Amino acid sequence: MCPTNSRKMGNLRAQYITHLVQYEQQLTALWSAAADDQSRLSDIQSMAHRLAGSGKAYGFRELSQVARELEQALEQTDHLSRQERASAASESLRELLRALRQISKTEPNEVVHDDAQNAAVTKSVSADDIRVLIVDDDEDFAIKLSETLDSYGYSAQVERDITQLEKAIADHDPLAVIVDMDFYGDRFAGAKQVAYWQHNDGAPLPVIFISEHDSFDLRLASVRAGGNHFLHKPLDIPRLTALLRAELNMAPVEPYRIMIVDDDQDLLSLYDRILGDAGYSVKTADTAQNALNLLDQFQPELVLIDVKMPVCNGIELGRIIRQHEEFSTIPLLFMSAVADMDVQLACARLANDEFINKPIEPWRLLMMVKSRVVKGRQLQGMDRALLAHGEETAQDALTALPKLSEVRRALNGLLQQPLERILAVIKMDLREFHSINNLHGHYFGDEILQGVAWRLGQHLGDASMLSRDGDEFLILSREHFSRKALDQYVRELTQVISQTEMNSEQGSVPLSVDVGVAIAAGDNMTADELLDQADMALFKAKTAKGAELVYFEEELQAEQTYRFTLEQSIRQGLDNQEFAAVYQPIFSVEGEHIVGFEALARWQHPEGGLLGPGEFIPLMEERGLISRLTEQIISCVVPQLAHWHTINPDWFMSLNLSAKDIQTPKFIDKLTSLIHTLKLKPEKVVLEITESLLLADWQSASQVLESLRSLGVRVALDDFGTGYSSLSYLQRINADKLKIDRGFIEHWSQTGDARLLRAMVQLGQSMNMGVIAEGVEKNEELAFLKQLGCDQYQGFLSARPMLPEDIEAGDWFP
């Protein structure tokens, strides 16, 4: 941030701290008055709402949090008497007053200021700085193009001699170069000279080739010379200016117009300053009426509206704006920290509006606004060329990052040039992101993606490019001369993410990533090939238990070929009914007799014999074949249970479900039919589901669990404690059995530390779940489980998984 902007932000911050002193006095007075006047509690709630929104935006995270807690305490007790509400909110109010006093004691220049002060707010390039070099031997055309670009706010210089290209670039220091292809009758002269200059200099300047002719050979020559675009004469000027803006990452010459509506003057001042310093034209309004008056005068291209305002709330204001035909297409961005407004906000989104959760840090405000103002200008019809060829088609709406297509285009251009430095594609995947979404909500998930994008962007050099695809981030890097330097850079980026602090109402959320890296090597490589290699490396990294970094090696290509061949064999095996089940007995801990079985899938391969699940399950899950396997296993396991019930009708049968089974529960119809046909007691069928699988898609999982409960089958929570555990979700799952992973038993066996193992047994039994220990291999382990009061166990100590005929041929049955 430049010194001037820093001083302005410092002044705003000092002014805000002064206001906080006034807030403290007002809150104290209102609390005293609330003893006799119920309405004062509502005033306190409104004041808390303001502080919850402005505190974090100015860098006071704790203030924002305690203010939000007070607001929620008053919201949740709205139906109670005045005395009951006051009692419920008293502790939160004391905490808020304490936070306000703490801040007021600190001088403004001594207060730690994080996001608002550290955010790298960069103003758009001014018109005087937009230097463009035109290289064309047609003097009339070059002068006309120069005058036209001048009228658009560019400073255009002309060079007629293509052989002077390098000198002209050195003299004029342009931000972009427009080069004719045809000089002195040589249709490829421009491309040849640019290629020569690129080879000698390699400066990262955008080059736009122009020509009266259009052919495959000319376009190929422009690509090989490192050209970014090729335009045919006569030029489409709006398209040319749109391409220049996109390449130089500049705002249009006419600033985007933004209106902010909020009754909190501190936030209006802050947001006005942040957006104004970034080159936007901003108007603010503190009431709905003032906002409506400004609409006609200002004609905004984006309106930011606070939801909770007196007299006319933000949702109502948005609907009034939509009633005016001339404003019906202006994008509205609602700002809210009010949980009970979610339904109304969702309705607003049906009208193509969006909202952002308060408090809003400056960096996030800039990110959200940047990707939406283009939409406003597009819908107002003020720059249709920008719609067709500009930033809108090239940016991700959530993070304002370039889309993958832009990375592919840039990569193809770079691969045509001599590589003096390492050209690498770095792909990062956020671990457990689906679980975070389900536990904390999709809006918080969006905040995480924005936060990661912002922080990665601050650590990228000029020669790198960042893009987002879902929960994956892709970095195109060409800054390093050695593999060692690149490796250190990648590890620094992973550390940036792991140190990114994201806090939801439930607390801090740790982040980590899997990383795949592919390095360009050899000639004739394409962007798609390099991107595919990065995908292969990332896939390998994601198969590891912990966060992992993997570089592409030729062995991965061979592994990919093997996986393709294996997939075809699996498909054939499914068609031929080659998959069957083996059964591992489950014993009671107390009496050590069989109480049931766990069915485990095996592949009776015609050449390889009986193959374990590690040979086929991962690939089946990846390729969407696992549901077919589940149905085949159910078809043999349920009849097997019916047969064994002739020996002991109390035995149960467990079988495992996959993520695909939860997302698309085709197996339920097959299971229901078999249970009814074979007249089985449904509670003797136990379906095992891992907690991480349930939390990865809780919406689908909850519906499946409800269907299974209606059918009467039981549910076991498998591998408890190894995933993204949450006691609140454990209550919702309401499982019948809890299975303790072998790792916890092994930990006790090696260390003697029984705390986790004991806690899990007690937790399961306290929630009325039967507890099963997996992987018991030693007598002392079984003895300790008996001491803990564990219900059942399975493991190699008593029995390995066996085919049904081997079980029946042995002495397992009475």
Brief summary:
The protein has 814 residues and is of the alpha/beta class.
Verbal overview:
It contains 33 helices and 26 strands. The longest helix has about 30 residues, at about 5-35. Strand 12 (about 465-470) and strand 13 form a beta hairpin. It is of the alpha/beta class and about 800 residues long. The strands form five sheets. An eight-stranded mixed beta barrel has the order 18-19-21-22-23-24-25-26, surrounded by four helices. A five-stranded parallel β-sheet has the order 2-1-3-4-5, sandwiched between helices. Strands 7-6-8-9-10 form a five-stranded parallel β-sheet, sandwiched between helices. It has five domains: about 5-120; about 125-250, Rossmann fold, CATH 3.40.50; about 255-380, Rossmann fold (3-Layer(aba) Sandwich); about 405-550, Alpha-Beta Plaits (2-Layer Sandwich); about 585-595 and about 625-810, EAL domain (TIM Barrel), CATH 3.20.20.450.
